[in-house]
Amino acid sequence: xxxxxxxxxxxxxxxxxxxxxxxxxxxxxxxxxxxxxxxxxxxxxxxxxxxxxxxxxxxxxxxxxxxxxxxxxxxxxxxxxxxxxxxxxxxxxxxxxxxxxxxxxxxxxxxxxxxxxxxxxxxxxxxxxxxxxxxxxxxxxxxxxxxxxxxxxxxxxxxxxxxxxxxxxxxxxxxxxxxxxxxxxxxxxxxxxxxxxxxxx
Length: 201
Known about the structure:
By secondary structure, the protein is mainly α. The protein contains eight helices and no strands. Helix 3 (about 75-85) runs antiparallel to helix 4 (about 90-115), helix 5 packs antiparallel against helix 6 (about 135-165) and helix 6 crosses helix 8. The protein starts with a helix and ends in an 8-residue tail after the last helix.
């Protein structure tokens, strides 16, 4: 069942302190109106199908998911439950079905948290709304991994240009902003969060 945006917002607000945000992400891609989640690939790096893994290989695959700093709250909870259960069937079910479903839920909550961030700019907000309206689980994962960084960079560049347009801008600030605009997305973000307050300090 697909969650409404209001329900997602409520869930994100309630879970926000404990949730882990994924890293920067999404180049706007296919946004077909589907939330289909594909089965998780083998997580042991060998390409062995989950159904052919030994119990030890299943445990290692789940432990690798737990070790991933981008794993969200539901993924962590269900991975631990699968390990606590310890049966072959429970671990296989998690890797084949539970993991992609849990990842999809964690990713949607991450989107709502970003949407609720007052620092999120127009492109970030636009792309998140498109994803929440019609994005697949794969679209959302791709955005969080690559597109978020690109959208944030565009919004940050607009913010820097607005600083340049201020009539009272100092020469030191103008030079610092110009350097930031020519930098990487991470350098632009750093300047907006910290660097601009260090100019002329």
